[in-house]
Amino acid sequence: MGDWWQRNIMEPGKLPLLLALTAFVLTFAITRVITRLIRAGKGPFGNVKAGGVHIHHVVPGVVLTVVGGFGAVAGGRHGVWSALAAVVFGIGAGLVLDEFALILHLDDVYWSEAGRKSVEVVVLTAALVGLVLAGFTPFGVDGMSQDELQDRANVIATVAGNFLFSLLALAKGKARLAIFGVIVPLIALVGAVRLARPGSPWARRF
């Protein structure tokens, strides 16, 4: 385990990315729990207001993302500062993308059907970052055996093929299947082979 950690996480400098992803997912999950408690009127939490204005959590999220992003650029890929900056960035990104639908529509659609776009974007973001951690960009790992190189090539080919199916499903208007298909193989294939939704880019083109 120690050798795997050193070769796949520490050596290529992926620890900040792992910390950012962990902070991102945990922040999103915790934020969703808290907002549901606020909506239900349970727990010690409540909406934050300043001068009668409801402060959405995307606001501190933007601040943390900026601070963490610049901190990560300044800190490089190694060291305590880069790890701390990665966590700050992950927390900020989680808060921002949890309200992605609000930014997109410029309206408070958090609990509406349109608000599901936030969840979809968060899942897609976590999936893509997870692919990077899993070796989709394996640069920086030295001394790999031929078998390891072959295994990694097979993984990359499989992921690339699945990603193409996801793009096809998205073009056919199957957004949810496309997003979850990035994570779970064959789900995107279902969306890719099914008929396109009326009005989708695929239907308009073909």
TrEMBL record:
Coiled-coil ranges from the UniProt annotation: none
Transmembrane intervals: 15-34, 55-74, 80-106, 118-141, 153-170, 177-196
Record's keyword terms, sorted: Membrane, Transmembrane, Transmembrane helix
Name the record gives this protein: Integral membrane protein
